[in-house]
Amino acid sequence: MSVRILALVGSLRAGSHNRQLAEAAAKFAPEGADVEIFEGLADIPFYNEDIDVEGSVPAPAARLREAAGSANGFLLFSPEYNGTIPAVLKNAIDWLSRPYGASGFGGKPVVVVGTAFGQYGGVWAQDDTRKAVGIAGGKVIEEIKLSIPGSVTRFAETHPADDAEVAAQLTEVVAALHGHAGEAVAA
User: Fold this and answer.
1) Measured between alpha carbons, how far is 120 from 41 in angstroms, rounded to an integer?
2) Using one digit for the tens of pLDDT, what is the confidence trace for 56-96?
3) How many C-beta atoms surround the C-beta of residue 9 within 10 A?
4) How many CB atoms lie within 10 A of CB 186?
5) CA distance 158 to 18
6) Is the pLDDT score of 184 beyond 90?
7) Distance between CA 35 and CA 27 in Å, rounded?
8) Is 35 buried (19+), middle (13-18) or exposed (0-12) by CB count in 10 A?
9) Whole-prediction pTM value?
10) Does an H or E element contain 142, and which?
């Protein structure tokens, strides 16, 4: 049985190190785990209940909800913008939190990881992301964490997939999430 993990990346920058982390996570996913990086967060309008009307939900938001509906777990990649979660990732969480009582996260396991330039690797943003996604209905797996500091220098010449330490850490993260998601599917 394959476990589908939906990855959401909180950076839209073409050379985003968090995007590269997501690519590495997909590359190192264990057998039976399919990590899909969601494309299109930039196209989703800011959440507004006035446009979240059954039958006329904006197409990009509907695609996100559809992808979330078929996912068994979530892997969120958050850089740190001014000490907190990037707006694009928060917006995705907001869309998935609705309609009220029917969260796209639906109690599914969620892991938050990331990298940032600062010395703590985006810990504040990742903590805020965990809080928001937990309130939005996700089952946050608190013991699985990965915050990589110094992204600008560490990944200046090296893709995260080619950094042996990061590759090993990501492999552990995805394998652990795969285990939680697999348990949820079997239950």
Assistant:
1) 26
2) 999 999 999 999 999 999 999 999 999 999 999 999 999 99
3) 27
4) 8
5) 13
6) no
7) 8
8) buried
9) 0.96
10) strand 139-148
